[in-house]
Write a structure and sequence with these properties.
Elements: H1 3-16, H2 18-31, H3 37-48, H4 56-80, E1 86-92, E2 95-101, H5 106-113, E3 123-126, H6 131-138, E4 148-154, H7 161-164, E5 173-178, H8 185-191, E6 199-203, H9 209-218, E7 224-226, H10 233-243, E8 251-253, H11 261-269, E9 277-279
Parallel strand pairs: 2-3, 3-4, 4-5, 5-6, 6-7, 7-8, 8-9
Antiparallel strand pairs: 1-2
Helix pairs in contact: 1-2, 2-3, 3-4, 5-6, 8-9, 9-10, 10-11
Length: about 280
């Protein structure tokens, strides 16, 4: 078996099991003395002294050296892809981990996800300009390995596509930031079918109390629910306090929902939220 084929198989392993497989790929890069080996060594050194205040100066120096190494690889990445469309947000073990697509099409996203540099991306920040673009994004096979999806500045509809799609089996964290968009109660009920979600953030989407209740009761693994700047208001908070009996949340953010003090107190005192930090 050729070295390239062996490495491709390691990449496939890492795609199916990122937590374990990525470290195996990193070990292989070190053995091959790949240019990314220095990034990996620095990352592991920093992780090894994380939390040790006595070594803070060394940690800062290593961080600066790591950022220099990363910048060299980012410049190579932008030589192959349009720099104005993509922003690399984080790297891990010599590969891009998080990428933001500002002006690219779903086809641009596909090209990055299928490239060697982007073959282990698990976090995607994307701004679809229409429902059709969102649909095309979900048809990309490589979306199956995305664990964290942030849809931002979205004014279309059809967010229920996310729940109906079979292309997001690995998704555990979802963020939807609207603008003029209204997330309907039926959309919320569809999102409540995404049972693997542990973190859900829906902001600026005009969500009501009924939609919030559907999410809390329908997502058994959800521990963080951020509903900042929606339309729950006091009646929505009252509804949650009375009916959210299937609540496993550790944190609920209702900041910017115009909830009156009496409704805040009712939610804080609700037996369904005794183990939940509720923020207004």
């Amino acid at each position: 078996m050729s070295e390239n084929l062996e490495f491709e198989k390691l990449i496939e392993r890492a795609q199916s099991n990122p937590d374990e497989g990525l470290e195996v790929v990193a070990d292989s890069l070190l053995e091959m003395n790949d240019p990314r080996a220095e990034m990996i060594r620095l990352e592991r050194k920093i992780e090894g002294i994380e939390g040790d205040d006595d070594l803070s100066l060394l940690r800062d120096a290593l961080q600066k050296k790591l950022q220099l190494a990363i910048s060299q690889f980012e410049s190579r990445f932008h030589e192959n892809f349009h720099q104005d469309r993509f922003s690399v947000k984080s790297w891990k073990r010599g590969f891009i981990n998080t990428i933001q697509v500002a002006h690219g099409s779903p086809d641009s996203v596909r090209q990055v996800l299928e490239s060697l540099e982007g073959s282990l991306i698990t976090r995607l920040i994307y701004s679809p300009r229409s429902t059709q673009e969102l649909h095309e994004l979900l048809e990309i096979p490589a979306m199956q390995r995305i664990r964290h999806l942030h849809i931002t500045a979205y004014d279309g509809d059809g967010v229920g596509l996310l729940a109906a799609s079979s292309s997001l089996p690995s998704l555990t964290s979802l963020s939807i930031w609207g603008h003029k968009y209204k997330l309907s109660d039926s959309d919320a009920e569809m999102l409540a079918q995404m049972e693997k979600l542990r973190v859900l953030e829906i902001r600026f989407a005009n969500l009501t109390g009924h939609g919030a209740l559907a999410l809390i009761q329908g997502l058994p693994n959800l521990v963080v629910l951020d509903l900042m700047n929606n339309k729950l208001r006091s009646p929505g908070a009252h509804l949650l306090a009375q009916d959210a009996d299937k609540n496993n949340l550790d944190f609920l953010n209702l900041e910017g929902n115009h909830v009156y003090p009496t409704a805040k107190r009712e939610l804080w005192r609700s037996p369904y939220f005794q183990d939940t930090i509720v923020n207004f």
